[in-house]
Amino acid sequence: MKLSSIFKSALMSTLLVSSALQAKSVYIATTAIVEHPALDAVRDGVKQVLNDNGYSGDKLKFTYESAQGKPDIASQIARKLVGDKPDIIVAIATPSAQSAATATKTIPIVFSAVTDPLAAKLVPKLEQPGGNVTGLSDMANLKEHFTLIKKFIPNLKTIGIPYNPGEANAVSMLDSAKEVAKEMGIKIVEAAAPKSSDVMIAAKQLVGKVDAIYCPIDNTIISAVESVVKVGIDAQVPVFAGDTGTVERGAIAAVGYNYFDLGRQTGDIVVRILKGEKPGSIDVKMAKGTDLYVNPKMAKRMGIEIPKAVLEKATKIIK
Amino acid sequence: MSLYAFLGTLEIGFIYGLVAMGVYLTFRILDFPDLTVDGSFTLGAAATAALIVSGVNPYLSTLVGTLAAASAGLVTAWLNLRFNILHLLASILTMTALYTINLRVMGKPNVSLIMEPTVLTPFEGLGIPAMYLKVIFVAVCAIIGGLLLAWFLYTQYGLAMRAVGSNKRMAQANGIVVKEKVYVGLALSNGLVGLAGALFAQTSGFADSTMGIGTIVVGLAAVIIGESLFGTKSMLVIVLSCIIGSILYRIAVSMALNADFLGFQASDLNLLTAVLVTLSLIFPKLRSEYKAKKAKRKRV
After folding, report:
1. Are A137 and A97 in contact (CB under 8 A)?
2. Which of A236, A298, B129, B160 is the most buried (most CB within 10 A)?
3. What pLDDT sits at residue B268?
4. Domain B3-260 is in which class?
5. What is the DSSP letter of A34?
6. Are B259 and B238 spatial neighbours (Cβ–Cβ below 8 Å)?
7. How many CB atoms lie within 10 A of CB B180?
8. Interface of A with B in 66-95 (CB under 8 A)
9. B2: closest CA among A78, A101, A29, A80?
10. Which CATH number fits domain A142-257+291-317: 3.30.70.360, 3.20.20.70, 3.40.47.10, 3.40.50.2300?
11. CA–CA separation, A46 vs A261, rounded Å?
């Protein structure tokens, strides 16, 4: 090797070391129970935050595995990931997070889109959970949601909620919806839809019994939300939603987060761990979101008007 | 594949080996296509998890979970034998009912066992690393289960059951009580599947209402892979081929998970697994055809 090339390589490695000090190369492994626009957006949000913090290109190894809806595959993926020794495992939705938490007690796990991490026993407590697991809960701020509906229908008495009784997240949501509604003097009427093909019938069952239909963040309902919208138009029952994406698909309004944003909030936790914080000392976060989406065209078709005050506050008006 | 991933593959392979044995018993021995397993796998897991969470000893919980799943098999057999409902339909009815029953048993769609004692707890103090302990435990369970099943199929009673599957009328003519064999066979089959569910919940940390989906496909795939590699010689070989078939199926899944370098995406997993299983199915046939051709050429 010539002297100049030695000098060159020395210079190169100094450069590399200095850039490594800014952000050394990291391996983030993400996994989700199923592919689905909202969950995919979470993953993309995580990656965006990593890129923003200088983890990109050569400095970031980012993998993604989907269990295609099967818990046995989720379990196998978790073990594969632990064997790959990533710096952090990002586990999206309850079964994926539980599989990962069982597979390793040492590799940091950041969960996301888990509605009730306490019921899922991912963490013993939300503040300073200890151990190797922390993350972001997407428990909806139902009080905010119902307050929004009340602005449309001042003498709101009953809200109908279609949900999948087989989905842990949906059941946690329904329980807290009932609590919140009770405080606000509202009655909840539930309609079970175990499969996406049952969503239409569930929505129809609610017609005549409720002043409004609220579509919660429930994988089954969201995947067939068009059928609820259709029932809303036919029966002139206003349909609201728990996430902004659903407004683009026909719900009248929603105040909430979009899942890309939720991914960004998850990514913030990931970056904190990369910078040296222990997962056990990071509080489990509740997802934040203040986006307000409204859909005037749909409101008209469902026979309701969007109050001026709401329209003025909207962050996005669907055309 | 890393060691940890390989051990995980083995672990889930052994657990589903029990499922494969159950499926073998109904599909091949009794000639009774039984889809109950999609529900009874979850029932075994759900009942076991619910009991463990309420403080019952994990071994007793596993036993109850297994028996609950076995009784689900009895229901399918009853619908078929007592009311002449087609076996496929009868099992679909039971499976559908089990979805609700499983939700009731758990009280919610997901029960976590992450922080609960399990059947593995008594062995945790022995100094074996957790990653090996789980594999050893489920391997012992699957092998003991397999040996007991092989032994059972060699007994007079087991022989009678095999006779029922291969020729019902002949069996009846020889004084075998056909109905009783179907009842026992379905209970045994679903019991094995329920035991697998109970073990899966305890080693994976949760029972979930969706966990049974596709159990029948996985079980059948394992049976067919095992059969295509080993043929059907003795009961002992068959039982072992169920376990090995199940492990090979998991290795196929694992390879599909690692296929990023070929330009595959996570969403291609199902197709990739299907292709790998299909290859394992057609390989023995291609090989024998090739051999036959070669032999023919020699003769000419």
Report:
1. no
2. A298
3. 74
4. mainly alpha
5. S
6. no
7. 15
8. 66, 68-73, 75-80, 82-85, 94-95
9. A80
10. 3.40.50.2300
11. 9
With beta carbons less than 8 A apart as the criterion, state whether B287 and B264 touch.
Answer: no
ipTM above 0.90, yes or no: no
Q: Which two tokens stand for residue B27?
A: 């599909």
B205/A101 Cβ within 8 A: yes
Band of residue A1 on the pLDDT scale cut at 50, 70, 90 = very low
**Among A4-13, A237-246, B59-68, B249-258, which stretch is predicted with the lowest mean pLDDT?**
A4-13
User: Based on the number of CB atoms within 10 Å of its own CB, is B184 exposed (0-12), middle (13-18) or buried (19 or more)?
Assistant: buried
Cβ within 8 Å, pair A71-B206: yes
Tokens of A208: 């005549």
Phi, psi of B222 (to 5 degrees): -60, -45
Closest by Cβ to A65, choosing from B12, B110, B257:
B257
State whether B2 and A165 contact (CB < 8 Å): no
Question: How is A262-313 classified by DSSP, letter by letter?
Answer: HHHHHHHHHHHHHTT--GGGSPPEEP---EEEE-HHHHHHTT----HHHHHH
Contacts of B52 (CB under 8 A, 6+ apart): B58, B61, B113, B116, B117, B118, B202
Cα within 13 Å of Cα(A90), Cβ side: 33
pLDDT at B228: 83
Which sequence spans correspond to the domains of chain A? 26-139+258-289, 142-257+291-317
Within 8 A of B112 by CB-CB distance, chain A residues are: 98, 119-122
pLDDT at A240: 96
Into which CATH architecture does domain A26-139+258-289 fall? 3-Layer(aba) Sandwich (3.40)
Half-sphere exposure of A216 (CA within 13 A, CB side): 34
Q: What is the DSSP string of A56-104?
A: -GGGEEEEEEE-TT-HHHHHHHHHHHHHH--SEEEEESHHHHHHHHHH-
